[in-house]
Design a protein that fits this description.
Blueprint (H helix, E strand, L loop, with lengths): L4 E5 L1 E2 L5 E2 L2 H9 L3 E5 L5 H9 L3 E4 L25 H15 L3 E4 L1 H9 L4 E2 L2 H4 L18 E5 L4 H6 L3 E4 L6 E2 L6 E6 L5 E6 L5 E4 L11 H22 L1
Helix pairs in contact: 2-3
């Protein structure tokens, strides 16, 4: 059986260059997928062709989402916005959902998935979150497990990881606030900040605020999340072959 092709979105530098940390590529390759980097383009037919050739869509992290995407004005602490990335990835998501392609999203990818489906965001947690916060933008290395997450009992995520709590890394100042109707809460931080969401339907759509690709070698629950995504892509590939 051929390896499932996992399309991985790329980050956009201020000068327009595309780049991606190798941890995304290594994680997918190590866990049985064939990573394929997705280059931003404006041609809708080309975007559809990209989605038609993948078995799973990995929405990566990066800088801030343009608040115009979810009909808000910029908060004073809004960071760098990657020009054109939101529009491109929204089209990717639309076509992937139409075809039933499994989707896994991290950090900004989770926020984009939720906001374009009608959810809301905290543009800057430190100013907008009601309540005391733990540190969500760690200063330590990317493979340092910063804080605990609490997994919702009965969630698909709980079925995947098989534990009630586990440790994650954390690199964000924005976060999901109110969830879109399509999503259920899957995990939260000790302060209540949303850490994982999942689709209510059977389609594999899972999104985390943390980055399993950086810690899958040292954290079994994080590894299981990525493995479940790759396995869902394998099943999608099998169905497509039939």
């Amino acid at each position: 059986m051929s390896l499932p092709i996992i399309g991985i979105t790329t980050m956009i530098e201020p000068d327009g260059d595309l780049h991606l940390r190798p941890s995304y590529i290594n994680a997918i390759s190590d866990l049985g997928g064939a990573p394929m980097l997705l280059a931003k383009c404006d041609n809708e037919d080309a975007i559809k062709a990209q989605v038609n050739r993948i078995d799973g869509l990995y929405l990566t992290g990066g800088t801030d989402i343009d608040p115009a995407t979810y009909d808000e004005e910029p908060h004073p602490q809004l960071g760098f916005v990657e020009l054109g990335r939101d529009e491109y990835e929204i089209k990717l998501i639309k076509y992937a959902l139409e075809l039933g392609v499994p989707i896994f999203a991290v950090c900004r990818g989770s926020q984009l998935l939720n906001s374009i489906n009608g959810g809301t965001m905290y543009q800057h947690l430190a100013d907008q979150y009601e309540g005391d916060l733990i540190q969500h933008k760690q200063q330590s290395a990317r493979d340092y497990l910063q804080h605990t997450v609490y997994v919702e009992e009965g969630s698909k995520l709980h079925d995947i990881v098989g534990v009630d709590t586990f440790k994650v890394n954390s690199f964000h100042h924005q976060a999901n606030h109110e969830l879109a109707d399509e999503f259920n809460l899957a995990a939260k931080a000790p302060d209540g900040v949303i850490e994982a969401i999942e689709f209510k339907t059977d389609q594999f759509v899972l999104a985390t605020q943390f980055h399993p690709e950086d810690v899958y070698k040292i954290s079994e629950p994080n590894k299981k999340i990525l493995q479940a995504f790759v396995n869902a892509a394998k099943e999608y590939d099998n169905q497509d072959a039939d």
